[in-house]
Amino acid sequence: MNPDTEQQDLAEPYLGGLLASLGLDVHYSRAEKDTLFFREETGREVPVLDFVGGYGSTILGHSNPEIVGYAKELLDQGVPVHAQFSKHPYANELAQKINAVIRREFATTESYSAIFANSGAEAVEIAMKHAEFDRVARLTELAGEIDGNIERARAAVAAGAGVDGSGSYGRLATASGVSFGAAMEEVIAAVRAANAPRLAAAPVFLAPEGSFHGKLVGSVQLTHNAGFRSPFSALAAQCRFVPVHEPDALAKTIESVRRTVFDLAVDDGAVRVVEREVPAVAAFVLEPVQGEAGIRVFDRRTAEHVRRTCEAAGIPIVVDEVQSGMGRTGAFFAASHVGLQGDYFTLAKSLGGGVAKAAVTLVRASRYRREFELVHSSTFAKDAFSTSVAIRTVELLEADGGRAYQLAAERGSRLADMLRKLQQEFGTVVKEVRGKGLMLGLEFHDQSDSSSEVIAEQARAGLLGYLLSGYLLRVHALRVLPTASAVNTLRLEPSVHLTNAEIARLEAGLRGLLTVLRDQDGAALLQA
Ligand code: PMP
C-alpha cells in the first residue's frame, strides 16, 4: 500500500472531520442494553448512556443476550445465509407472525403479503415500486378499455352514427387542435395523441410535510428536507408535501394533480368524447409518528381524514413504521393507536433485533400484485440469518402477552414525565416535549438570537443540536442526538430496559445542559 494514503482517512473523511469538530468522534467498542462503551487512551473503558438507540434500531437493547445467543446458534449450525431462489419457510413464518399482529391491532381479517429488504429506505422503495406497478397495471387496463371503445365508435360511425361535438369535444380540440366536425379517423388520432403523454406521465407521491422516508434515489424524494432531497430531484418521481393538519389541504393537492384521458362513448346513435380519470397519484406515504421531523405524533382525527380522502380518491396509503414500529410506541404498530390500517406497512430498524439488517414491506391482499415477486429481489433480502433473527425479535416482543409493549408505554411515560418537569423548570429554553412511548422529542426554543456568540452562530448554522450533543457526551457521558430534519429537537429512543436510575442520570445531564443554555453560557458548551 502506498505509505502516503495509508495514513489518510478514506472512509467518509469529511463526516469524520465534522464529528471531530463537534466532539462526537468517539469509537464505541462494546454495547449492552442502553450503554455504549469506548476506551480511553489509557485503556480504561468508559460507559456512555445511549438514548439514540441505534436511531430506533434497539428496542430490545444493544447486544440483547437472547438475540445474540440465537444468532450464534444459527451461525454455529451453519445456517445457509445465501440460498436465494430456493424455499424460505422462515420467511413465511415471519410474515405469519406479523400478520397475526396486524389482525389483532387493526381488528382485520385481511392478510398482507411480505416482500423482504435490507434497510428502511429499501422497504419504502419496495412500497413505492409496488404502488407504481399497480398504477401502471391500472393504466394499461384503462388504455385497453379505451382501445376497445375506439373500435366500437369506429364501427358505429361506419354504421351511420355521427360524432357529437358536445361533452369533452371542446377540451379535446383545445388539447390536440382537432377541429369541430372532423372526420372520425382524425378524432381518433386526436384522442390517441392527447392521451399518450397523459398515460405516460410520471406518477406523483404524496406525503405530509416534514416526512422522512430514507435517502435512496426514490425514497429521498419523499423526504421533505430539501438539503437531502433537492440535488437528486431529477432522478425520481416527485412528491407533493401536504400540510395535512389544514382541513382541505389534502383534497386540494389531489385536485391539483388530477389528470384525465379522452375516451369515446357510443350512445343514442352518436359518438361522444368523454373523459376518464387517470390514477395520477401512486401512493400517500406517512409516518404515524414522524421521527426525523422532530418526533411528531399523528392524531386520530388527521389519520381518519387522510384515510377517508385517500379512499375516496382510490389512493393507497403506505404506513412507514420503520422507526415508529416494533413496539416502540407501546403497540407493535404506532398506526394502531389511531386506527390507521395501511394498504402497505414498512418495517426495518428494530426488526433485526439490533443485530441483523432486516426489513420488510407488507402489502394488503386486495392491492397485491403477485407478479411483483418476479420483478423485485435483492441478494441479501429474506436470508435465513436476518429473517430468523427477526422472527426471534417479534417473538420476544410478543412474549408474556406483549409485556414489551407495556414496558415501552410505561418507561416512556416515566421518561416523558421527567422531560415535562424539566420543561416547567426551564420554560425559557425548552419549547415542547412530544412523542409516544419510547419515541420522544425535546424541542428547544430557537437560539439564533442568543446573547452568546457561540450559541447564536451554531444555531444559525443548524448545528446547535449537535453542539449540545457534544456537550452531553463529553461532560455527562450521555449519547443524545437531534432528529435529522429538525435539529432543535433532541430524540430519545432508548430500549424497554431503561431503568429509573438511567432516567435520573439523563435528568441530571439535561439539567446541566439547560442551565448552560438558560445562562447563555456558550463557553461551557465548548468545555473539554
Ligand atoms: N423511514 C423512516 C420513517 C425512517 O425514520 C428511516 C430512517 N431514519 C427510514 C425510512 C430509512 O431507513 P434506513 O436508514 O434503514 O434506510
Please describe the structure with a list of short key phrases separated by commas or semicolons:
binds 4'-deoxy-4'-aminopyridoxal-5'-phosphate, 528 residues, 19% strand, 16 helices, alpha/beta
Description:
It is elongated and about 95 Å long. It has helices spanning 3-6, 13-21, 53-56, 65-76, 89-106, 120-158, 169-176, 184-200, 226-229, 249-256, 300-313, 384-425, 453-460, 464-476, 500-518, 522-526, and strands at 28-32, 35-39, 45-50, 112-117, 162-164, 204-208, 238-242, 259-267, 270-278, 281-286, 289-290, 296-297, 317-320, 344-347, 359-364, 430-436, 439-444, 478-479, 481-482, 489-492. β11 (289-290) and β12 form a beta hairpin. It is of the alpha/beta class. It has 16 helices and 20 strands. It is 42% helix and 19% strand. The model has no long low-confidence stretch (mean pLDDT 96). The chain has a 7-stranded mixed β-sheet with strand order 4-15-14-13-10-6-7, sandwiched between helices. The structure holds 4'-deoxy-4'-aminopyridoxal-5'-phosphate. 4'-deoxy-4'-aminopyridoxal-5'-phosphate binds next to α6.
Brief description of this entry?
Belongs to the class-III pyridoxal-phosphate-dependent aminotransferase family. The protein has 528 residues and is of the alpha/beta class.
What topology emerges from the helices and strands here?
Blueprint: H1 3-6, H2 13-21, E1 28-32, E2 35-39, E3 45-50, H3 53-56, H4 65-76, H5 89-106, E4 112-117, H6 120-158, E5 162-164, H7 169-176, H8 184-200, E6 204-208, H9 226-229, E7 238-242, H10 249-256, E8 259-267, E9 270-278, E10 281-286, E11 289-290, E12 296-297, H11 300-313, E13 317-320, E14 344-347, E15 359-364, H12 384-425, E16 430-436, E17 439-444, H13 453-460, H14 464-476, E18 478-479, E19 481-482, E20 489-492, H15 500-518, H16 522-526
